[in-house]
Design a protein that fits this description.
With 124 residues, the protein is α+β, with helices and mostly antiparallel strands. It has 2 helices and 10 strands; from the N terminus they run E-E-E-H-E-E-E-E-H-E-E-E. The strands form 3 sheets. It has a 5-stranded mixed sheet, with no helix packed on it. Strand 5 and strand 6 form a beta hairpin.
Length: 124
Amino acid sequence: MEKKNLICIACPLGCALVIVVENSAVLSVTGQKCPRGEHYAIKEITNPTRIVTTTVTLIGGDIERLPVKTESEIPKDKIYDCVRALKGIAVKTPVYVGDVIVENIVDTGVDIVATNTKRTRTSG
């Protein structure tokens, strides 16, 4: 049996959680002040995921980098692969919020989408 300590990020309270784990199974979660804490702890121990936000090169815009993100969470152990895969990506204007920049990034089933609209150097 092993005890793990986490700070919950599911809500602004930031509860100090204690999770008891045995053979990769969560036996108990304590310290949460709201129901989201237990769900967060179990997910973080058994299947940690994250939203990835970064930028890609923008061609023809008034800025050089376009902010992008994963459309939903990806496995935490795929984050570095995701960022590496985006390193050489360049996008031409026009680009609109929600446009898919890369489909199925690193075989996660999750798309990379634009989080900003950029038309040309002189507009939007």
